[in-house]
Structure formats: structure tokens, C-alpha cells
Design goal:
By secondary structure, the chain is of the alpha/beta class. It is 34% helix and 20% strand. The chain is built from 18 helices and 22 strands. The protein has helices at 6-13, 57-62, 84-97, 113-124, 142-147, 168-175, 191-194, 197-209, 224-227, 282-296, 301-309, 339-352, 372-385, 399-406, 421-431, 445-455, 460-463, 466-472; strands at 4-5, 16-18, 25-26, 30-31, 42-44, 67-70, 78-80, 103-108, 130-131, 156-160, 180-183, 216-220, 236-241, 248-255, 261-267, 270-275, 320-323, 329-332, 358-362, 390-394, 414-418, 437-441. The strands form four sheets. The chain has a nine-stranded mixed beta sheet, with helices on both faces. Strands 17-18-22-19-20-21 form a six-stranded mixed beta sheet, with helices on both faces. The protein has a five-stranded mixed beta sheet with strand order 2-7-6-5-4. β9, α5 and β10 form a beta-alpha-beta unit. It starts with a strand and ends in a 16-residue tail after the last helix. It binds adenosine-5'-triphosphate and magnesium ion. Magnesium ion (MG) is lined by residues 113-114, 136, 138, 160.
Length: 488
């Protein structure tokens, strides 16, 4: 964060200093978790479902925090505010206002925000110092948290923006007004909360409506609802996709044995060959979106072609393809799931597993509301149509996947439904053979355990990212008191 005195912090958040020197300077990052505090930091005490952050104020000061932002005085220098969530939003905005050199890139979409955010951050880092969120920090908590990482050296601030309802993106755009807005796709993720796909599209459009006239809306030409947003933004429009007429276009897409796409990128009358190092045909869409941003920021096409080839998977559990010592290939795409992202993963399994036994382990798809049965059936049907050999459906809630697969009368594969993830692991232990390719996918937490079991319990590097993902998703942590955060 940029250095601010406590007087400046208090003014920015409309708070009151209690037992705190106005000229004391905050230099370190803002943290909600006392274990993450570093010297010069500011600790924000939230009252959550499981714990009260105020109880960790002393620990934060001992770890080097210069003050605590809290809703009541604590035995430490305190900035007292009514609402800490609103306060960090105001503080984040105050930081943005002090950084006129910053270009803010906002990214939204139903699937692929985190994946695309990671790609954009890697490309822009070639152009200048770039700050982007850990994991999936995309809400009223994770977004200002990320903004507060920016300082006077930062040139690009890449922000994932998630929406659970109307007004969410408008609110996030007020915290950090973007100059570039990327919309990847509009699907049925969170449709249970929104009610209809049209409502989801309207909410996503809030990002491009918030752009300035001299900004850039980077829109997916292949998604009708996203394309239509061209008419809703005051900014310049740049499109990407396979569609003719897209500003940046991928043609002649093919996948290698690892499911990694190669294609020709066409832009501005020029072409360049691209070989992605990340798996899944949906990465073409994400990489095109990322290329659109870098192109808008002035990266020449030749450089872009090379840079795209160097892109890596950063956030875990998203199309993470690895080989086990016993010759089984695992596709860990267990971070989250909705019908579109599951379709993307099933296609990847189809491609990677050509000539091999292909097994999909699929869990419940959450937040589909009235679309729940249809969404699950659609996924099962696709698994069968792709001719997968085995389908392991995990949990009673996911039964529609099995129904969908069995409804495809020509399917010669086998569908088994198990009660929980332990049962899935036990089943896999008995059926997996060298050469098999197994995809693990479902909505968050519990499906991860299956992927972890297949990976081997000793790889802590992956498990360590869990906290990051959960905080970003509005989860909870006992050291912060941060519970589910509700949009203002
Ligand atoms: N363009 C895409 N289309 C469909 N599925 C995708 C796309 N990009 C990524 N996915 C898949 O969607 C899942 C979620 O990916 P990612 O975390 O990037 O999305 P997200 O939009 O950030 O999700 P969340 O809303 O949970 O933050 C992963 O399984 C990933 O492989
Ligand atoms: Mg995300």
C-alpha cells in the first residue's frame, strides 16, 4: 500500500482515532488475518460467523501492525468505524485516487474470471509492474483487499469482479474505476440468485457501463449476450473470439495430446502462431480476452504471440493436468463447477484421453436454482455423447448427471453414483489402471478432497491455497472473524 498517516486513513474511512497518533504512518499491507500481518500494516477486525477479529487485535499489533481498524476501541491504536467492509472500500478508493498512473482492468464473466485474470496479469507484467489478486478474490472484501496492494510503482491493477446480484459490479467499479473492462461470457453460474440469464447479462454489463469514453471494453464476440454489451458502453469496443469480424480472432484451433490449444491469432491485418501451454479449449477464449487487453495496452502482435506461449497456470485446481507415477493422468479441475465449465472440462477429458480409458468424477453443481435438474442432466448427456468410459457421480444432489448420461441410449459406458467423496476415492482406487485419464470436477470444497487423494496426500503446495480461495469466495477463517460477506 502507499504510505498513509493514520489521520489520512481516518479521513478516508470517515473513522475516529482512539489511542492512535495521527502522524503514525501505515506502510504495510492491510490484513484481516492477524497471522498475515507484517510490520507497518493495518489490521482490520471483522466480526464473523465463527470468530471476532477484535479478539486478535493484540496479536496483530505484536506482529507489527501500527493500528487496528475496528468497530469499537480495542487495547491498541484504533481507527473506529461503523462498518469495516465499507471502510476498506473507502480506503481502497482513496488509494486509487492517489495513483493517477494506474490503469485498472476489471474482469467479469460466469466462468473463467480467475483463469483469465491470471493470464492478463502475466501479459501486463511484461509492460509494467502489475498487481492482481491471489486466487479468486473478487468480491466486496477480496477486491479492495487487492486494490490496497497497489503502490506508486504499480502501473496495472488487474481485478477479478464477481457478481451475485444486480448492483454488485457497479459497487466494485466505484471502489476501483476500471479503464479496461473484460467480459468473458454469460452463463448460468449463480442463476439461483439472479433468476434468469438476462438478469445475469444485465449485471455483467454494469462493468462496461462504468468505463470511461477513452477506456476499452474487451468483449467476447462469440457470446451473443456479451457482444450485445457493445451498445451499452461509452468506451471503445474491442472484440475477441472465433467469429468473423472480431478484433482479435483465433483461427485453425487444434489441441495436442495434453489438450493444449494451438491456433493462429489474427489482429489488425496481421497473424501470429500461438501454442498455449495450458490445457482445455476454453483457454482459447481466456487467452484471447487476455490478448485483447494487452493489445489495447499497446503490445505488438509478434510479442503477443510469444507471450501467450509462455502463459502458465497460476491458480490451482483449474485444468491442472498431471501424470502420476503409476501412469494415470489426472485433470484436477475441482475448484468449482457450473454446466458450462463442466462441459469445457469434459471436452478436455475427451481430447486428452483419446485412445485411453476416460473417467469423469463429477460432483454437485451448486447455485443452479430452478435449473438444477436440467443443468445436471445436460452435463451427464454430454459425458455420454463424448463416449466417456466411466462416470462417477458423487453425492445424492448430483444424481441428475447420472440420469442425463443413462438417457443416451447409444452410450456404452458405465455410470456409478456414490454417496460421498470418500466412497468416490475408494471406488477409484479399485478401478484405476495405468493409462487411465481421470477428470475431477464439482462445486468447490468437497470435490477437492478427491483430487487431493488422487494427487497423493503429501503435496501441501496445493492444499495451502485453500484459504486464499475461500476468503475470496466469502468463506470464513477463525483468525479473522470474516464470515460470509453481503454486498451493500
Ligand atoms: N472460458 C471458460 N469457459 C468455461 N469454463 C471455463 C472457462 N475458463 C475457465 N473455466 C473453468 O471454469 C472453472 C472455474 O474457473 P475460474 O476459477 O477461472 O472461474 P471464475 O469465473 O473465477 O469462477 P468463480 O466464480 O468461482 O470465481 C474451472 O473449472 C475452469 O477450468
Ligand atoms: Mg474466480
Amino acid at each position: 500500500m502507499i504510505a498513509l498517516t493514520l489521520a489520512e486513513v481516518a479521513a478516508a474511512v470517515q473513522g475516529t482515532l482512539v489511542g492512535a497518533g495521527p502522524n503514525v504512518v501505515v506502510t504495510g499491507p492491510v490484513e484481516f488475518d492477524s497471522r498475515r500481518i507484517s510490520p507497518g500494516g493495518l489490521f482490520v477486525a471483522f466480526v464473523g460467523e465463527h470468530a471476532d477479529g477484535h479478539d486478535f487485535a493484540r496479536a496483530a499489533i505484536e506482529a507489527g501492525a501500527v493500528a487496528v481498524l475496528a468497530t469499537r476501541p480495542v487495547p491498541a491504536p484504533t481507527v473506529v468505524v461503523d462498518d469495516p467492509l465499507a471502510a476498506i472500500a473507502m480506503l481502497a478508493r482513496a488509494v486509487v485516487d492517489r495513483l493517477p498512473e494506474l490503469t485498472i482492468v476489471g474482469i467479469t464473466g460466469s466462468s473463467g474470471k480467475t483463469s483469465t485474470k491470471d493470464l492478463i496479469a502475466q501479459l501486463l507484467a511484461r509492460l509494467g509492474p502489475t498487481v492482481s489478486p491471489r486466487g479468486s478474490f473478487n468480491n466486496e472484501l477480496g477486491l479492495p483487499y487487492t486494490v490496497l496492494r497497489a503502490d506508486s510503482r504499480t502501473r496495472y491493477l488487474v481485478l477479478e469482479m464477481g457478481a451475485r446480484g444486480p448492483g454488485n459490479l457497479r459497487y466494485l467499479c466505484r471502489i476501483a474505476p476500471p479503464q479496461v473492462g473484460v467480459v468473458i461470457n454469460v452463463g448460468v453460474a449463480h442463476i439461483g440468485e439472479f433468476g434468469s440469464v438476462e438478469a445475469i447479462a444485465q449485471s455483467k454489463a454494469e462493468l462496461v457501463e462504468a468505463l470511461p469514453r477513452d477506456g476499452h471494453a474487451v468483449l467476447n464476440a462469440d457470446d451473443e449476450r456479451v457482444r450485445a454489451m457493445a451498445g451499452l458502453t461509452p468506451a471503445r469496443v474491442l472484440t475477441f473470439g472465433r467469429a468473423r469480424g472480431a478484433t482479435l480472432r483465433a483461427v485453425d484451433v487444434s489441441l495436442d495430446e495434453r489438450g493444449r490449444p494451438s491456433y493462429t491469432l489474427v489482429a489488425g491485418g496481421d497473424t501470429v502462431g500461438v501454442r498455449l501451454g495450458i490445457s482445455g479449449v476454453h483457454q482459447v477464449e481466456n487467452a484471447l480476452a487476455a490478448a485483447g487487453v494487452a493489445w489495447a495496452m499497446g503490445m505488438p502482435l509478434v510479442e503477443l504471440g510469444a507471450a501467450l506461449g509462455d502463459l502458465q497456470l497460476v491458480s490451482s485446481r483449474r485444468m491442472d493436468v498431471f501424470d502420476r507415477a503409476d501412469g494415470v493422468t489426472v485433470i484436477d479441475d475441482s475448484y468449482n463447477a457450473n454446466p458450462a465449465s463442466t462441459a469445457a472440462a469434459l471436452h478436455a477429458l475427451g481430447a486428452i484421453g483419446q485412445g485411453r480409458r476416460r473417467i469423469a468424477v463429477l460432483g454437485y453443481l451448486a447455485e443452479l436454482g430452478a435449473h438444477e435438474q436440467a443443468g445436471h442432466e445436460q452435463v451427464g448427456r454430454l459425458a455420454a455423447e463424448l463416449g466417456l468410459d466411466h462416470l462417477v457421480v458423487v453425492g445424492a444432489g448430483a444424481g441428475g448427471i447420472r440420469d442425463g448420461a443413462l438417457a443416451v441410449s447409444t452410450w456404452a459406458g458405465e455410470a456409478v453414483q456414490v454417496t460421498d467423496q470418500q466412497a468416490a476415492v475408494a471406488l477409484l482406487r479399485s478401478v484405476l489402471r495405468p493409462g487411465d485419464v481421470v477428470l475431477v470436477k464439482g462445486s468447490r470444497y468437497r470435490t477437492w478432497d478427491i483430487a487431493d487423494a488422487l494427487r497423493g496426500a503429501h503435496d501441501h503446495s496445493v492444499k495451502a491455497t485453500r484459504d486464499d480461495q475461500e476468503l475470496g469466495a466469502g468463506g470464513s477463517s477463525t483468525h479473522t472473524g470474516v464470515g460470509k460477506v453481503v454486498a451493500p
